[in-house]
Specification:
Number of strands: 6
Structural class: alpha+beta
Oligomer: single chain
Strand content: 25-35%
Order of helices and strands: HEEEEEHEH
Distance between the termini: 40 Å
Radius of gyration: 15 Å
Shape: globular
């Protein structure tokens, strides 16, 4: 387990600077959570938490990895696809390395591997995910009667 924390610190605790549509964008990785799931399919999701905060989740090999990101400033909605593509191209090797290590050694249900001064909204989101995964509940809430 200690290896996962050290790996998350080394690979994710950083600020990333990208040039997107002739603008410099700084993205800071603030949180990383890993959870074991009962699916071996690959999936990618995006959760917008506020003007400057979002979480991406990458599902593979029976795990889901949530990465909390904070931007230095708000960018246009049209820029999100390019930001996500650039961010994922940069992070995929680190994501693959972390999930491969978890596949070999991790036996838990879910753990917060990195909390780099997350703001309250992101911290609430991550700890809500952590509790739901540990209890085996869905991370999605049904708000209307089906």
């Amino acid at each position: 387990m200690i290896n996962l924390y050290a790996l998350a610190q080394r690979e994710f605790a950083k600020d990333l600077i990208f040039q997107i549509d002739d603008e410099t964008v700084t993205l800071s990785i603030k949180g990383v959570l890993i959870a074991r799931i009962n699916k071996n399919t690959h999936n990618f999701s995006f959760f917008e938490l506020g003007e400057h905060q979002f979480v991406i989740s990458v599902q593979m090999k029976g795990f889901v990895l949530y990465i909390g990101v904070e931007a230095d400033e708000e960018f246009e909605e049209e820029a999100y696809p390019e930001v996500m593509r650039t961010l994922m191209e940069h992070l995929l090797p680190s994501i693959g390395m972390l999930i491969a290590e978890a596949d070999r050694k991790y036996r838990g249900k879910a753990d917060l591997l990195l909390d780099d001064n997350m703001k309250d909204d992101m911290k609430e989101f991550f700890y809500g995910l952590l509790i739901r995964h540990k209890e085996g509940r869905s991370i999605y809430e049904q708000t209307e009667i089906a």
